[in-house]
Amino acid sequence: MATYNKRGYKPKTKVEKEHNIEEGSTTAEVFNTLDETASKTEDFVAKNQKYIFVIIGLVAVIVLGSLGYKEFIAQPKQATAMNDMFQAQKYFDEAVSAATAQKDSLYNLALNGGEGKFGMLDIIEEYSGTPSANLASYYAGTAYLRLKDYKSAVEHLSNFKSEDEILAPLAKGNIGDAFVQLNQPEDALGYYEEAAEMRNNEYTTPMYLFKAGTIALELGQPDKALSYFKRIKEDYSNSTEAGKVEVFIGKAQVLANK
Predict the structure, then answer these.
(1) Within a 10 A sphere around the Cβ of 138, how many other Cβ atoms?
(2) What sign for the dihedral angle of Cα 47, 50, 53, 54?
(3) Torsion-angle region of 92 (φ positive above 0: left; ψ -120 to 50: alpha; else: beta)
(4) C or N terminus of the chain, fewer CB within 10 Å?
(5) Phi/psi of residue 24, each to 5°?
(6) pLDDT tens track for 42-98
(7) Based on the number of CB atoms within 10 Å of its own CB, is 176 exposed (0-12), middle (13-18) or buried (19 or more)?
(8) What is the domain extent for residue 168?
(9) Which among 65, 63, 62, 83 is positioned nearest to 73, based on CA atoms?
């Protein structure tokens, strides 16, 4: 059981006196150690305060600089990029719904600009690092795909980064389409598979599962193709692809059993 001595208590025995002396000595040593440590710290600070202040200053500059860049440079730059991109996006949207004879000219305007306005290529160059430049890479890649410039399509679509449920798989799938046209079916299959697995939704997932299945059949991989076709039938029965997948399931089964 722990014990304590009342205030004013005087040691009566030699043992108690020696114990008190030891306690006092230990306490003194602790305080002496603390004093020495504090003294050394003060000496270090005194000798190196110039460098310490420089380090603190650099940290402050980095933090404030980051905040300042975001507030006064990045955000205004993005706003300007969005404004300059408006006309190019308008050309692209018009190209999508235009008659066949007008599509190429509108896609070229979307890429290179018109009426004194920036095109998608200008946005990529002038506003590098902004979300607008990133999105312009998607539009530029897709425009090149429609214009049958497949290598440029792959280049720009590969530069596009997104977590969007629709745009992310569309970009990968468009790269797959470009590789089909470049007669590189193995590459196309890889991108179709990636597009199908990126975001699970009722639009892009069955579309790219179907494309992956047809390319797998072409490459002599009927088992893989069959798994993709069956997944469409079972998990995406309301999709457009589900309405035509039965024929491909039958074909894949025949080839798989050979």
Answers:
(1) 23
(2) negative
(3) alpha
(4) N
(5) -65, -40
(6) 555 555 555 444 445 445 444 444 434 344 344 667 778 788 899 999 999 999 999
(7) buried
(8) 163-258
(9) 65
